[in-house]
């Protein structure tokens, strides 16, 4: 397998001057690694693991390395080779890079044909994360069915690889955009309440054939360009402006064609759909899972403090409390991460 096919530190990083004391031992490959690109498939048990370990005849007591779990799940559930693998952009290196290395070394096949790495959701200019206690749940956000549609609309308004800065203002803008689309659809359907025939646009002749064809062409071109949803939205709102312009003078045939073009776009974007009944935070209060997560976050912060004080026994006791709440904890360069068990 080719190392670094997705992303990798530059050659300059790997070949850094070994006499430079500012270059870390790990980057120079002078700790317990023969090569700085090496990574662990199996980690020997340590006191900070909180008893999470297994006995291996050939490897000794320990636990799988972080990267191995995803390869194991993919092969078990999906097979040796998959079509699409996704994840946050921060996982490109080293996690996904190492996934490719270890999986293809075993199977001899291409691990994934396509990789989709999404940008982060930022709240108050910071990456949304459980560990920073800087996150919103949909239950807190959705107070009305339109809110659920607006959130979906907002997420798709940003190309998936780009970061999304969430705020009340951008949610309000998404809501207003949906109301504009809904208003146009309502008026079109009053003029043409029958089911739209599939051949409506193909049979359309005259002034609106070319503009409507252009809307579909622009939409399909955008979606074929690495799922460029912002450009797809531009095509959608070209359709909205065209419909608004001709709402009063469109013939029945033209109205049917307008609706068919929207159906084609909506079948991809899912702008209009029936929102299932939503139990909001205001009506139900925090769920037990949310309460457990908040408590686990507090315990994890206290555990970090104890580790800094070298009270490892106390830190291990807090790890066990976190496990009883239904979460595992990983130490990261930024602090910690909680995962649902």
Write down the secondary-structure element order.
Answer: HHEEHEHEEEHHEHHHHHHHHEE
User: In one word, what is the shape?
Assistant: elongated
Ranges where pLDDT stays below 50 over 5 or more residues in a row are 11-30
**Helix count, DSSP H or I runs of 4 or more residues:** 14
Strands, count: 9
Helix content: 40-55%
User: Kindly state the mean pLDDT as a whole number?
Assistant: 83
Q: Which strand order do you get reading across the main beta sheet?
A: 6-5-7
Largest sheet: 3 strands, mixed
Specify the structural class.
mainly alpha
Strand content: 5-15%
Outline:
The protein is mainly α and 341 residues long. It has helices at residues 11-14, 25-28, 68-77, 92-107, 138-141, 145-156, 168-191, 200-203, 209-223, 229-246, 252-269, 281-284, 288-308, 312-324, and strands at residues 42-44, 62-64, 82-88, 112-118, 121-123, 126-127, 164-166, 327-332, 335-340. Strands 6-5-7 form a 3-stranded mixed beta sheet. Strands 1-2 form a two-stranded antiparallel sheet. Strands 3-4 form a two-stranded parallel sheet.
Describe this structure in words.
With 341 residues, the protein is mainly alpha-helical. Strands 6-5-7 form a 3-stranded mixed beta sheet. Strands 1-2 form a two-stranded antiparallel ribbon. It is elongated, with a radius of gyration of 26 Å. About 6% of the residues have low confidence.
What does the secondary structure layout of this molecule look like, with pairings?
Layout: H1 11-14, H2 25-28, E1 42-44, E2 62-64, H3 68-77, E3 82-88, H4 92-107, E4 112-118, E5 121-123, E6 126-127, H5 138-141, H6 145-156, E7 164-166, H7 168-191, H8 200-203, H9 209-223, H10 229-246, H11 252-269, H12 281-284, H13 288-308, H14 312-324, E8 327-332, E9 335-340
Parallel strand pairs: 3-4, 5-7
Antiparallel strand pairs: 1-2, 5-6, 8-9
Helix pairs in contact: 6-7, 7-11, 9-10, 9-11, 13-14
